[in-house]
Amino acid sequence: MNDNNWKKVEYETWDEAFRGLVVVVRQQSIRVAAYTQVLYLQACSNGFGKNHSDGAAQIKSQYGDLAYKCGLYHQLGKALVPPDYQLWRDDFTDEEVAVYKKYTTDGRALTAALQSRGQRAREKRRGDASGETATKNIPWLMIRESCEQHMERWNGSGYPEGKMGNNISPIAQIVGLAKELDRLASETKSEKPFDDAYDVLLSQKDIYWSTELIAVLEAAKSKCRSVYNKYIHYTMTVPKTVHLVDKRADRPMGLTYKAMFGDKEGSVVAYEATPWFGAIANRPGETEGIADIHEMLVRTGLIADMAFYFMYEAADTVFRMQNCKLETRGILLNMMPGFYTVGTQLQRFNQLFDDQPIEKSMLMITVPEDAFINANKANKEIIGRYLRNGIALVLDGYHPEKLDYAELIEIGFRYVRLAPELNLDPAAAEMIRKLQENGFTVLGCGADSDDLLRWQMACGVVATSGSITGSPVGEEELIRDSLLREQQ
Prior knowledge:
46% of the residues lie in helices and 9% in strands. It is an alpha/beta fold. Strands 1-2-3-4-5-6-7-8 form an eight-stranded mixed sheet.
């Protein structure tokens, strides 16, 4: 880690030391302070800490504001190390882990020094070997113990000393629970991070947290949720997704999703969405694809409306994926070719991205090569307008001998998906290289064997689908499976 430009600072005030923390640690400390105050006041009502020798002295409602400060300053010891060591990293060496964990004892020493600095010289007493000035002042002790013991756990698995049970200060137990609630709610990949974090903490009863403390959390759940909602914009989480399309079980149309792999190991990097139509007369439970119903939709003038229904449904799924913080390139929606024969729909596109605020590049939409080749000048200009306005259109089924990529560049295409019959063609491999050199992102399809998948990945295809990438699934399965995969 690079800490060559960092110099240790002798802090004179609490605020100065707090400003020595990196921004994300300060933001976390503010949230933890709010959770701590809520839990502390509930602890007072519950009679928490009565089995601890310091409980009667520390757990009093008159110290509600002090509890906030205990949460606010619990990480103050991190101000004594370079910024690179203030945030936990999984690749820390053993020595770096030791440096990181030392913030707990450093925090106690720093708060003790700041407290005693405010005393008059004649009131100072000789400190212990660590340099800490001894005190019987309850508020001072609570802040010191919060700094030092908030990472201790009920079963003795915490640090810095491995204290267990009621050997851990009551206020430190509360701050520790508040910090873990915030960490889980901020980092959980889920549509309901607070609820999932809450459930995890309940499952840790009598392991990391006492039964008594979990009872405090249960009683304060609604108030803790209010804290979560208040500071939601300072974390990476968002509330449960609100869909713009009502996906009832009996709806007569929808999308199925197929995984798209991004490497030969089978990492899922995107999904391909394909529309289906149901409610077929005298054929309950059966569905039809685009090709089967496309002519009827063109004849009845429903192409544009159906296209935007599917785009909204796909946008809803992209939004859910973003809310769950899934690592994905998004969704490739197979579009009905007749969509590009109707007039411009740019206003509806703009409305879609206003209604569902997702990144435009996360919703890619296919333009079948034949539809583009057969489009008249006006329709090609419409496609160009979509591209110029940031709509991610993918020329699908591309044959280099039919369309020069220079023409694609001129109109604005930057995504192409090669026709499946070009798989394993040496000339196609060279074309993929040329496309990439000219700024194109190349997608694939027809990945029906390990050899074909490896060939496509070796050629530089960023995502591909086929029988080897799995079976089509519904939206709920997509979200569930993606969350499980990323938690492994």
